Structure formats: structure tokens, C-alpha cells
Amino acid sequence: MSTETMPQNKSVTEFKLLGLTQDPMKQKMVFIIFLVVYTGTVVGNLLIIVTIKFSRSLGSPMYFFLFYLSLADICFSTSITPKLLADALSAKKVISYNECMTQVFALHLFGCMEIFVLILMAADRYVAICKPLHYPTIMRRQVCIILIILAWIGSFMHSSTQIVLALKLPFCGPNLIDHYCCDLQPLLKLACMDTYVINLLLVTNSGAICLSSFLLLMMSYFVILHSLRNHSAEGRKKALSTCTSHIIVVILSLGPCIFMYTRPPITFPMDKLVELFYTICTPFLNPLIYTLRNAEVKNAVRKLWRFKIGSESK
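C-alpha cells predicted for Olfactory receptor:
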């Protein structure tokens, strides 16, 4: 008997994902497009990670945090995209219950880590621009390491809360998820119980983190940009370029997140596209934004590449 028509008293052991499209030709296009995007995400973020790791000129706290943002981006995209690619080539888009719960955990762990790192990067820019004389003392290496550890702990606590909520949901059929991945919002629609309280907890957890983080980041960058009026023209230009990159990433990351997690359990036609942009496209765009708008990163990449070519020629 198909799991889609199983009796109501039997627990669901697997889910079927509808994905982005049911059209075979469009599925092939989905595979090609997102294979390119995923490859670009991994290569671009790895390039940033390797460059920061081996470049002496990128030893400041800002690049220390950028290292972990790129790491979170790779893991975040990897928790979603490989399954999406596999399903695009498969007629049977099935994910087991355990795999589904693992995806929920990974999605929220690395997504939350990305948000916390963006907050740390904003804090670093605030201290560097608004309190330059105290910057070496406040943002010393030991402090940055502690902040990153706290970010991982906070992300783990958030994702643990999400997985506890997901594990409390009873599924007795049907098992068809109108989505390309497992997340709490589409899973709530399949649960054979009243999900009002769990959705409320979801909004107060994920929604509150997204919205409060966005407001905090926008306020911090407003203060930073306002304080730039006291800097020299050259210092203003450099700080403005860095802050603009960060603001773009914040809007791209948290805008869709706010849309998905700060509302009642209502389905909109654009839900898949919004979450697709948030989970797959943003990790691809982040390294492009940081490298194309950051002269120090571009110079460090060139030096590292020249050094590699020089070593191989010898």
C-alpha cells in the first residue's frame, strides 16, 4: 500500500517531496541551474575560507568572522541543495522521517549561525568605526573566539528547540510535502493534531530571532553610517563600502527569513521561491558580494593565486 494512502492509525515513516516542479523537462533545468549555483556556492565560499586562512593581510576580526560566515553558508546550502538535485533526477522524491528531522535540524543550525555571525560582523564594524582607539583591546583574538563559540552554542540551542517541536508532531497520513525540503512550516500542515501552539512557538522562536536580529543590525549600521561624518573622505569611502556589503547581505539573508517565520501558518504561492532564495541563492551571492566589493579580499586572492602558480612552476 502506498504511504500516501495509508490508514490514519499508522505512523508515517517517510515523506514524499513535491519539489519545485513536476514537469520532467523543467526538472532537468532545475538540476542544471542549481548544480551550477551549488558549485559556485562551495567554490566561492571555499575560496574565501582558504584565502583568509593563508593570507597574513586578512588577519583582522572582520575576516575572522567572514571565515565562519562562509563556513556556515557552505553547510547551510549543503543541508538543502544535494537533496534537491537528487530529487530533480528522480521520479520518486522520497525522504525518510529521520532524514527529514536531520534536515530540519541542519537547516536551523546553520541558518541561525549565519545570522549570529552577521551580528558579530556588525559589532566588529561598530567598534572599529565608532571606538577606533579601543578596537585592539575590545576585539582581541580571544574575545572573537569566545564570541564565535557563543554563536555556535546559541545556534545549537535554537535548532534543538526546532527539532523538539518537530519531533512532537504526530504524522498519520497523508505524507505529501508541497515543498523541496523539510521545514517546520510545511510539516505543520501534515500533522494530525492542532498545531496552533507549536506554530506560535515557531513564530516566537525563529520569527523573533529573524526580526529582532534584522532590527538590531539595521540600527547598528544606521549608527555606524551616521558616525562616518566625522571621518576623512578616504576613511568614509572605505568604511561605507564595507558597511554597504554587510547591509546587502543582511537584507538578502533576513528579508526572506522574516517573511517565512513571522506569520500565521498561511500558504502563499511565492513561499517556495522565497525560501529557495534564502536557503540556496543567498549562500551563493554572499562570496560574490564580499569579494567584488572588498579590495583587500580581491588583492589577497590575487596574491594567493600568484603564489600558487609560482610554486607549481618551480
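Residues 3-297 form a domain with the Rhopdopsin 7-helix transmembrane proteins fold (CATH 1.20.1070.10).
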